[in-house]
Design goal:
Layout: H1 2-12, H2 28-35, E1 39-44, E2 49-50, E3 53-54, H3 55-61, E4 65-71, E5 89-90, E6 97-100, E7 118-122, H4 133-146, E8 151-154, E9 165-168, E10 183-185, H5 190-199, E11 206-208, E12 215-217, H6 218-222, H7 224-229, E13 233-236, H8 260-269, E14 289-292, E15 300-302, E16 320-324, H9 330-336, H10 343-351, H11 371-376, H12 380-386, H13 391-410
Parallel strand pairs: 1-4, 1-7, 4-6, 7-8, 8-13
Antiparallel strand pairs: 2-3, 5-6, 9-10, 11-12, 14-16, 15-16
Helix pairs in contact: 4-5
Length: about 425
């Protein structure tokens, strides 16, 4: 089973070095000895594969005991809508209880981990701050530390790992779509990012003191260093991957990122989610098709409809006009999208008839409550768009914080950088 998976991966994944990129999950000789005889709780979804075989199936076939599956946004099988709450259930294929860690509950609790000796994380990320899997990773790590469970992270390549760009998040705008002071595109694998969370002491968790039952910062009780000293994080690295690699995902990471074009455009066009512009959910090419019913009918036309992962898209069954930037040439797309692009966001704002309602408003009216500002990680981008700033002017304001981030990032890189 595993050998078949390796052959498939070698023939389907191309890299600039002409050697097969093998994610951490393929390095079974490095982590199987750590799992044998243990009860395993695995964070996984449809991307957790070795070749064509799901990692859960592979591990069970090899005699590993999996007692719990934890699932991120979109669920274990990856079919739920963005933001949709998925209830806990028992997976029919494996008979294993599945605990959803998206919505009100974002990390395992003591009950979830009663029958877990070791925690395993294997999810394909896309390297964008507001893609919620790195937020789930943080919660998973915090639970591992709080409940004294060793954690193995099976690293996977970052398809957008060949550049760093975008505004750096300001802490007051932290949310599940952006928890840490990193840019929109941060150029790190999950393994590198996990090491940064630990090294920069960015993790945050609560500790329930048995004496007074008060929720207190764990750092205040034990000190971060004391608790962290007992925490064992093992990162199983990818083979033949660098930050210059061209990695084509073998499985779509979520319903609305069905191809590499969507993955490359996602960092730039996801900002439309915080506006009244359709970001293309409900079309064949989400994040590559975007627009609005009021835009000139001389532009590209499309009609969002109900699809898997987009039950109620914006402007469902209404004709919209806008742009279609989809292209099947992945190499050309990758070259084009080696930085965050604001041109279509600025054009859409210029065309929108009622500027005051371009951004989806909030009941409170507070700057930190605007979803657009949560995506941007600040309030400045919205203000700059409203003020008519050019893309060059906006990008120039990002540079000081980007330079500071690059210094931090460099400390935790496990793979050769693109610079």
């Amino acid at each position: 089973m595993l050998i078949e998976g390796l052959i498939i991966a070698q023939t389907n994944i191309a890299t600039h070095t002409m050697l097969p990129i093998l994610p951490g999950a393929y390095q079974t000789e490095q982590y199987l000895p750590l799992l044998r005889g243990k009860r395993v709780g695995i964070f996984a979804n449809q991307t957790s594969i070795i070749g064509n075989t799901h990692l859960v199936d592979s591990l069970q076939h090899l005699g590993i005991t999996i007692t719990k599956v934890f699932a991120p946004e979109h669920g274990f099988r990856g079919t739920a809508d963005a933001g949709e709450t998925v209830a806990c259930y028992t997976d029919k294929g494996t008979g294993i209880p599945v605990v959803s860690l998206y919505g009100k509950k974002t990390q395992p609790n003591a009950v979830d981990l009663l029958d877990v000796d070791i925690m395993l994380f294997d999810i394909q990320d896309v390297g964008v701050r507001f893609y919620t899997f790195i937020s789930s990773l943080q919660g998973f790590m915090e639970s591992a530390i709080q409940y004294n469970k060793p954690l193995i992270l099976l690293d996977r390549p970052n398809p957008n790992g060949f550049y760093v760009d975008g505004p750096v998040l300001e802490k007051e705008f932290s949310s599940f779509v952006g928890m840490q002071p990193i840019p929109v595109v941060y150029g790190m694998t999950e393994g590198e990012y996990a090491k940064m969370l630990l090294g920069e002491k960015w993790l945050n968790w609560k500790y329930i003191c048995k004496e007074d039952k008060q929720s207190t910062s764990l750092g205040q009780i034990l000190g971060f260093e004391d608790k962290n000293a007992n925490f064992k994080l093992t990162v199983i690295p990818c083979r033949n991957y660098t930050h210059m690699s061209k990695y084509i995902l073998p499985v779509k990471p979520s319903p609305n990122l069905p191809d590499m074009a969507s993955i490359y455009w996602y960092p730039s066009t996801c900002f439309f989610e915080g506006s009244n512009i359709s970001e293309g959910r409900g079309t064949e090419h989400p994040f590559c098709i975007f627009g609005h019913p009021s835009f000139p009918d001389t532009l590209f036309s499309f009609v969002p409809t109900t699809r898997i992962g987009a039950k109620e898209p914006k402007y469902k069954d209404k004709k919209c006009y806008g742009w279609n930037v989809f292209a099947a040439n992945n190499a050309a797309l990758r070259k084009l999208n080696n930085h965050l692009q604001l041109q279509y966001l600025l054009k859409a704002y210029q065309l929108y008839p009622t500027k005051d309602s371009f951004f989806i408003s909030t009941i409170s009216g507070g700057q930190t409550d605007y979803f657009f500002n949560k995506l941007a990680g600040n309030k400045e981008l919205m203000q700059q768009i409203r003020a008519g700033k050019s893309e060059v002017e906006i990008r120039n304001t990002w540079q000081p914080k980007l330079a500071a981030f690059m210094v931090i990032r460099k400390k935790y890189l496990m793979y050769k950088d693109f610079m």
